[in-house]
Specification:
Elements lengths: L8 H13 L2 E5 L6 H8 L5 E5 L16 E5 L6 H14 L4 E6 L8 H5 L3 E5 H4 L3 H10 L6 H11 L3 H11 L7 H18 L6 H10 L5 E2 H8 L4 H11 L3 E3 L4 E4 L1 H14 L2 H17 L3 H10 L3 H14 L4 H5 L1 H6 L2 H5 L2 H13 L3 H16 L6 H16 L8 H13 L25 H4 L2 H16 L6 H12 L5 H7 L3 H7 L2 H17 L3 H17 L6 H15 L2 H10 L13 H13 L3 H8 L3 H6 L3 H17 L5 H14 L4 H4 L2 H10 L6 H17 L16 H11 L4 H8 L3 H15 L4 H10 L8
Parallel strand pairs: 1-4, 1-5, 2-3, 3-4
Antiparallel strand pairs: 6-8, 7-8
Helix pairs in contact: 8-9, 9-13, 11-14, 14-15, 15-16, 20-21, 20-22, 21-22, 23-25, 25-26, 26-29, 29-30, 30-31, 31-32, 31-33, 33-34, 33-36, 34-36, 36-37, 39-40, 41-43, 42-43, 43-44
GO molecular function: DNA binding
Pfam family, one: TPR_MalT
Organism: Anaerosacchariphilus hominis
Length: 787
């Protein structure tokens, strides 16, 4: 038996189970996974008859021969009719025998019955991949010293592929460092092995088919036909599935190559195809996606192929399909890839660049592109269709650019309405909410309008509906209801008149407005102490939007559900959202995610991590100031005040005062009262000298929310239970499995002192044993998840 064979514990268990209860053990994995040597190691000492289907003389032996286990290698080469049926019959008629079958393909159909009845165990490629322990053991057996960081790097590069790890061990012997040059050498050896052992054994049409699909991470049959131009694409895919395991299913219609094999195919493609031919292939993939109106993938292909004219064309078309601010951030890299001359030739692209710059807070760049669009208009005649389009784009920017605020919109919208009436401009579509659950605080902050909401509802409703088109369906009624809601009024009656309009919104309006209405309903339900109803409102819409493919709304929906979880005390669900879905990007502000940033800060406050919350909130301040985001500013100041108070930092008073001053100016109540029990102690400790009547109304609303949700944003550890800095250090060492003696040595303290600290830590975490401390600490976010 080869000395450097690593048998994974999980594989050994499945082999032992097969020997005790099974009949067939089927290895299904690409070459280089060590199927043959692994099988030999597992079967060492057994009475084994070995055969290979690659041998022309291979024949199914009679059961009377002296063998206990039949091992057949390269089963994918066995003739289906002649050999496989005979093999199945032998398995059925010889219950006293065992069968080990090795194949680069999937189990043939005739063996399926054995798998369904539990008589056949299948070990696939993923079962044979090495993990960290396997890599460490292999290097120890090879006599190679390797550090933990090198093992991490080897796993990352090899993805646990046994052959790649084995070659790495050989190349590093006897003590060579793990360097980029060594990694390149290992990849080269693996690829040469693939070329000889697999690729050169395929006939030429299959090789060509594989190479022409290699540039694409996934594909379906239609794409395979279009890219390869092969009318037998379906047969090729069936053959690859049958005789290899290099192709995997994404779902029932889409496929992808095993990553290691795809890397090889791309390497082979570089050697066999010219750059021009590779770009032509990628452009065919772009055409496939374009015909499906999957512009994100089409743009990726055309950009890789260097086809700037197609990128420009698709960005214009995509802007028409996905209006508003949302799509520009998603398409940023494609806009940035275009030559400036290409952008200057298109009003749509200049509009897009102006909005894109605004969204990354490059307001100088935004105004520059706005100016270029103005110059374009000046060079066009009044009857020029391009000029008419450019004037419409300018009007769109006048209304939509975030840095422009809303103070001038009461004049801008009627003026644009007159231009539309006279057919002097044609406006692109808008997105009033920018995928947020709000109109008042969506694409723009309409706090200024809230001061005169009843008057503006009467005077601006008609021109707004004309200017906004589909986005105006239900907009005015929803906007005034939200304005009243923010001011603390009961909007139950208004919601009863809004909800019957939802069918009209779905049929003639936009999904943005559907989310805005549902978001307002959920917020009002939560404010009235009905969190179960609020959750159901959002979950139903979430399911509906998933079915309709409206994925751009889902992150904000998930954040809404997280806020409901925090209100109801489901802290584990809030932690799960934080781990899996929170942006967690303090160095890169995406203003389209501000609702998620505020939610993230709430979770961090709940986790008793005020410093983390302040780090999340601080990058939003310049955007809020430059774009007059009043509502976001109130939320940010309240959350900052709560975080500072948790740190015993007296600057909380200044922040809460700023929040109250802004809220009082606009008569907003809910913007502050939503924080209920979390903000109530701060209000009680602050001497605010503003409007007493408004403040009395605010306090009543805050107390109501505190009664409904008494534990909202309450830290998991009460102030008296917080760990001291020394205790926190010792907790990390406990979770690193250090003994008390080792902790005493590291901390340079006496052993009894460590024992006292450990006792206090266990008491504060409400656990009895050190082993339970790690789980409790992770739940409280006191240590990293990977510790």
């Amino acid at each position: 038996m080869t000395k450097n064979i690593i048998i994974k514990t999980s594989v050994q268990k499945q082999f032992d189970s097969f020997m005790m209860h099974g009949r067939v053990l089927f290895f299904s994995a690409p070459c280089g996974f060590g199927k043959t040597v692994l099988a030999d190691a597992l079967l060492h000492g057994q009475n084994v008859l070995r055969q290979s289907a690659a041998d022309p003389d291979c024949a199914i032996p009679p059961s009377e021969q002296d063998w206990d286990i039949l091992l057949i290698d390269d089963l994918q080469l066995m003739q289906e009719e002649a050999g496989q049926q005979a093999l199945c019959e032998l398995i059925r008629s010889s219950p006293e025998h065992r069968f080990v079958l090795l194949s680069r393909g999937v189990p043939p159909g005739c063996l399926t019955a054995f798998q369904y009845t539990g008589l056949m165990t299948v070990l696939e490629a993923d079962d044979l991949l090495f993990d960290e322990g396997d890599v460490r053991r292999l290097f120890q057996l090879s006599g190679v010293n390797v550090t933990d960081s090198e093992i991490d790097g080897i796993l990352k590069e090899s993805v646990g592929y046994p052959l790649g790890v084995a070659i790495t061990a050989r190349c590093m012997s006897p003590d060579k460092p793990w360097t980029p040059e060594l990694v390149a050498r290992v990849f080269h050896e693996v690829f040469l092995y693939f070329e000889t052992a697999i690729y050169r054994r395929f006939d030429l049409p299959v090789r060509r088919f594989l190479l022409e699909l290699a540039p694409f991470e996934s594909f379906d049959l239609k794409m395979a036909r279009m890219v390869s131009g092969d009318p037998r694409a379906g047969e090729r895919l069936d053959w690859i599935f049958r005789y290899t395991t290099m192709l995997r299913y994404d779902d029932c219609q889409r496929f992808h190559f095993w990553p290691g094999f795809r890397a090889f195919l791309l390497w082979e493609m570089e050697r066999e195809y010219t750059e021009e031919k590779r770009k032509a292939l990628i452009s065919r993939g772009g055409l496939y996606y374009e015909l499906k109106e999957d512009y994100a993938h089409a743009l990726e292909c055309y950009t890789s192929g260097g086809d700037h004219s197609k990128v420009s064309e698709l960005l214009v078309r995509n802007a028409e399909l996905h209006p508003g601010m949302g799509h520009y951030a998603e398409m940023e890299k494609y806009y940035r890839s275009l030559p400036e001359a290409e952008i200057l030739a298109s009003p749509s692209l200049m509009q897009g660049m102006s909005m894109l710059c605004a969204l990354v807070m490059d307001y100088e760049g935004s105004e520059r592109w706005y100016g270029e669009l103005q110059k374009f208009v000046e060079h066009c005649g009044r009857q020029d269709a391009a000029g008419k389009q450019a004037r419409g784009r300018l009007a769109w920017l006048d209304i939509s650019l975030p840095q422009r605020g809303v103070k001038g919109l009461t004049e801008t919208i009627p003026a644009v309405f007159r231009l539309l009436t006279n057919k002097e401009v044609a406006l692109p579509s808008f997105s009033v909410t920018s995928a947020l659950p709000s109109i008042m605080n969506g694409g723009k902050d309409f706090s200024e309008w809230s001061k005169k909401d009843d008057l503006l509802y009467k005077t601006l409703r008609l021109p707004v509906e004309a200017v906004l088109g589909r986005d105006s369906v239900c907009l005015a009624d929803c906007a005034i209801a939200e304005s009243k809601f923010e001011k603390g009024e009961d909007v139950a009656g208004r919601m009863l008149s809004l909800l019957p309009q939802m069918n009209e919104v779905r049929n003639h309006g936009t999904s943005d407005m559907e989310f805005a209405v549902s978001g307002l309903l959920a917020r009002s339900q939560l404010a009235n102490g009905q969190p179960t109803d609020a959750r159901r409102t959002i979950e139903v819409l979430h399911e509906c939007f998933v079915e309709r493919g409206l994925t751009r709304f889902l992150p904000n929906m998930d954040a809404m559900l997280c806020r409901i979880d925090m209100h109801t005390g489901d802290l584990d669900a809030a932690d799960a959202w934080y781990r899996e879905k929170a942006p967690c990007e303090p160095t890169h502000l995406n203003v389209m995610r501000r609702y998620q940033y505020l939610t993230q800060a709430m979770v961090e406050i709940m986790q008793n991590r005020p410093d983390a919350a302040l780090l999340t909130l601080s990058p939003m301040e310049p955007y809020i100031q430059n774009c007059a985001r009043i509502i976001d500013g109130i939320h940010l100041n309240v959350l900052t005040a709560i975080a500072l108070r948790r740190k015993k930092d007296e600057r909380w008073r200044e922040r809460l005062t700023a929040a109250l001053d802004a809220a009082a100016e606009y008569r907003f109540i809910r913007t502050v009262s939503v924080y209920g029990t979390a903000v109530l102690p701060l209000l009680g400790a602050l001497e605010w000298d503003g409007d007493k009547k408004w403040y009395k109304q605010l306090m009543a609303a805050v107390r109501m929310q505190a009664a409904f949700y008494p534990h909202f944003l309450e830290p998991r550890l009460a102030p008296g239970e917080e760990l001291t800095p020394t205790e926190l250090q010792i907790l990390h060492l406990i979770c690193a499995d250090k003994s008390n003696a080792e902790i005493a040595q590291i901390m340079d303290v006496k052993l009894p002192t460590v024992k006292t600290h450990v006792s206090h830590i266990l008491d504060k975490l409400d656990v009895k044993r050190r082993a339970e401390a790690r789980t409790a600490a992770k739940k409280l976010r006191l240590i990293p998840d990977d510790l």
